Amino acid sequence: MKDYRRIALIALIAFVAAIAGVVVGREYVVPQRPVENELHDLLHSQLDLDARQHAQIDVIEKHFATRKAALEQELRADNARLASAIEAEHGYGPKVAAAVDRSHTAMGQLQKETLEHIFAMRGVLRPEQAAKFDAAVVKALTAKER
């Protein structure tokens, strides 16, 4: 009977440790949600969009999803080139520098297109909706990390 209690105690301790790990992971390890996710939540759940606005935003989101996927693929290719350059040079040489510069160009393009996407969605909003959207953008961009 003592063995069952010991097993049950170990199982309980393991369960509590697992729950604690999940809580710590969610609070301190998981990165914050990207700004565009917070803005999409605001658009779709808090701004009371009409049918025309929903349709326009759906078109904007589909177009951006295609561009974002292409740019993310480009970033993955840039990372592979950077890894290859690091492997070849074993230091910060000209190939590594060129690979870093190339990846920064793709990152910058993704940031620009994300902003264009945000402003395109804003353009669909009525003035009172745009004011809430603007406040959410400012809050998301100036929020301090945990």
Structure description:
α2 (35-45) runs antiparallel to α5 and α3 packs antiparallel against α4. The protein has five helices and no strands. The protein is flat and about 70 Å long. By secondary structure, the chain is mainly alpha-helical. It starts with a helix and ends with a helix.
Judging from the principal axes of the Cα atoms, what is the shape? flat
Low-confidence stretches: none
Determine the mean pLDDT: 83
CATH topology of the largest domain: Four Helix Bundle (Hemerythrin (Met), subunit A)
CATH C-level name of the largest domain: Mainly Alpha
Protein name: Periplasmic heavy metal sensor
Organism: Sphingomonas colocasiae
InterPro entries: Metal_resist
Pfam families: Metal_resist
Quick overview:
With 146 residues, this protein is mainly α. The protein has two domains: 30 residues; 109 residues, Four Helix Bundle (Hemerythrin (Met), subunit A) (Up-down Bundle), CATH 1.20.120.
Fold topology:
Blueprint: H1 2-29, H2 35-45, H3 51-89, H4 94-122, H5 127-142
Entry keywords:
Periplasmic heavy metal sensor; 5 helices; Metal_resist; flat; 146 residues; Four Helix Bundle (Hemerythrin (Met), subunit A); mainly alpha
